[in-house]
Design a protein that fits this description.
single chain; about 200 residues; mainly alpha; Hypothetical protein af1432; 11 helices; about 60% helix; globular; binds fe (ii) ion
């Protein structure tokens, strides 16, 4: 083991509010379970899972300031919806503060909010784990419709591409239902790529 996940977890627990830390633990274990099923490194999945929201306590002004200060590029979509930057800022913190050197782990943190086209297995695992971890509320009561959280949780252990597509469709429909909510172009590109798996 290259990284001490217990030490990382303890440090993250001091950085995040309790409910966000519990979510991060949920993502870590869910990502590790998915990694077992889909034959990805458990260590990579655990490290990316526990660190994915490490920048999430920053508010929007802080995220913009932090990214400018550290020369992290900000897209027009991110400028319009700065909370999206917690992925990029989190990857930067993972590298600089936690010494995570593997670009594929950093990418899984970087793209966990929007997803993107042609994700690696690890990126898909973190994207899906973030959505299905046990602490996420199941508003749809486990009915047998194909895109309930209940169904997506099962699908994640069968067909990860289809689980990504179901999550992206639900997220975009949710964002469209509220005209105040911004839909990031990366999310739309990702859905265009993954919708063939539906
Ligand atoms: Fe996040
Ligand atoms: Fe998260």
């Amino acid at each position: 083991m290259k990284y001490n996940i217990n030490d990382i977890s303890e440090s993250v627990s001091k950085k995040l509010k309790k409910r966000r830390y519990i979510h991060s633990i949920g993502v870590m274990y869910t990502a590790q379970a998915l990694a077992m099923k889909h034959e990805v490194s458990l260590e990579d999945a655990g490290v990316a899972g526990i660190l994915h929201d490490v920048a999430k306590e920053m508010d929007e002004d802080e995220l913009l300031h932090y990214c400018n200060k550290h020369n992290i590029p900000i897209s027009p979509a991110e400028k319009a919806a700065p909370y999206l930057l917690h992925g990029k800022a989190g990857a930067y913190i993972a590298k600089k503060k936690y010494g995570i050197g593997e670009e594929h782990i950093l990418d899984a943190i970087r793209f966990h909010t929007t997803g993107r086209a042609q994700m690696t297995m690890l990126e898909k695992i973190i994207f899906v784990a973030d959505y299905i971890e046990p602490g996420r509320k199941q508003y749809d009561n486990g009915s047998d419709s194909s895109d309930t959280l209940y169904a997506i949780r099962k699908e994640a252990f069968t067909d990860l591409d289809r689980a990504c597509a179901l999550i992206m469709r639900r997220t975009i429909e949710y964002l469209k239902s509220d005209s105040d909510k911004h839909i990031d172009s990366t999310s739309i590109e990702a859905y265009e790529y993954y919708k063939v798996f539906l």
